[in-house]
């Protein structure tokens, strides 16, 4: 049995949840910007997840996951306190460069709010003035607002509908931060590619160093498969070994988004199989219970024992 025990779980919304996993060696080695490869069970899919936090004293790492595909939906259903992951490998990737900037804007959009936290904390611990800009669709999806408020010097919260913070896109929050400060050294952004692209365009005119954490499709996570390649300027890079942090002004976001959509059909088919499997399980159980009820109302002079579950499952 693996030792990667889940010691805490918190659900932020119907689709977003936090898992704190015991892994002392990983907790000691983790740095801001790095990620892990997770397997739920032995023959399951290997998925990359960015490290959202780590506690060296407790020996734990924190992952914030969004149930958007087959494996993350399975994890949402099965990962409870006391259960264990089959595998947890890391830290992987190049840690974020911290310590050179005096004033930094850390931008997190949606699920990207989680992995931007270690970077914000790292810059703060290095002595920088840190401005956090967090973006969500609506108030019900907001998480870690207090955590950022305690860590950062300033916090700008944005929601699309104005139900919390300022009304508007996350780029509106970025523009507000730039309007307040004319001496920002760097902006770090994590979130959907279209959001990171927009942030890079906002900072381009002022020549502010902009770092983004990309999320291409990844297979092995060690640079062997080449699946996570992206275009950065006139070079091809691999996110798992060269990144995941890159210069946002050089990343070809259009190519990245095209590559992310390449396996949409296969991902949809996998989800459909998972949903069908769940429905079949439910149907079989209901059918078996109905058979039990029907049998109970009939005469009981059968000589052979009756197994309704066997009949319902086609035995």
- End-to-end gap: 33 Å
Content of β-strand: 25-35%
Q: Please work out how many helical segments DSSP would assign.
A: 10
Element-level helix/strand string: EEHEEEEHEEEHEHEEHEHEEEHEHHH
Kindly report the average pLDDT value: 83
Fraction of residues in H or I helices: 25-40%
Rg measurement, Å? 23 Å
Strand order of the largest sheet: 12-11-10-9-13-14-17
Largest sheet: 7 strands, mixed
Cα shape: globular
| Poorly predicted residue ranges | 299-315
Q: Which structural class should the secondary elements be placed in?
A: alpha/beta
The number of distinct β-strands equals 17
Summarize the structure in short.
The protein is α/β, with parallel strands linked by helices. The chain has 10 helices and 17 strands.
């Amino acid at each position: 049995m693996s030792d990667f025990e889940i010691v805490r779980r918190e659900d932020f919304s119907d689709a977003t949840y936090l898992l704190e996993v015991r892994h002392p060696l990983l907790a000691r080695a983790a740095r801001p910007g790095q990620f892990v490869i997770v397997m739920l069970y032995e023959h399951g899919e290997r998925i990359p997840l960015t490290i959202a936090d780590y506690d060296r004293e407790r020996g734990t790492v924190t992952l914030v996951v969004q149930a958007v595909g087959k494996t993350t939906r399975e994890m949402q259903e099965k990962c409870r306190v006391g259960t264990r992951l089959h595998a947890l490998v890391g830290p992987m990737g190049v840690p974020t460069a911290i310590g050179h900037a005096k004033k930094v804007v850390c931008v997190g959009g949606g699920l990207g709010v989680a992995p931007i936290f270690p970077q914000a904390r790292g810059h703060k611990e290095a002595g920088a003035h840190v401005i956090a800009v967090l973006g969500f669709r609506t108030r019900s999806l907001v998480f870690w607002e207090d955590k950022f408020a305690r860590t950062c010097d300033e916090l700008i919260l944005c929601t699309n509908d104005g139900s919390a913070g300022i009304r508007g896109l996350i780029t509106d929050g970025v523009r507000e931060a730039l309007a307040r400060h004319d001496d920002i050294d760097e902006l770090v952004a994590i979130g959907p590619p279209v959001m990171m692209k927009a942030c890079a365009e906002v900072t381009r005119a002022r020549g502010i160093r902009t770092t983004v954490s990309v999320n291409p499709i990844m297979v092995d996570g060690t640079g062997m498969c080449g699946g996570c390649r992206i275009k950065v300027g006139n070079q091809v890079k691999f996110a798992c070994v060269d990144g995941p942090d890159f210069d946002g002004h050089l990343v070809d976001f259009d190519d990245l988004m095209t590559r992310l959509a390449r396996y949409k059909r296969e991902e949809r088919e996998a989800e459909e199989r998972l949903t069908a499997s769940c429905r079949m399980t439910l149907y079989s159980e209901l059918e078996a219970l109905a058979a039990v009820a029907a049998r109970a109302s009939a005469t009981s002079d059968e000589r052979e024992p009756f197994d309704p579950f066997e009949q319902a499952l086609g035995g």
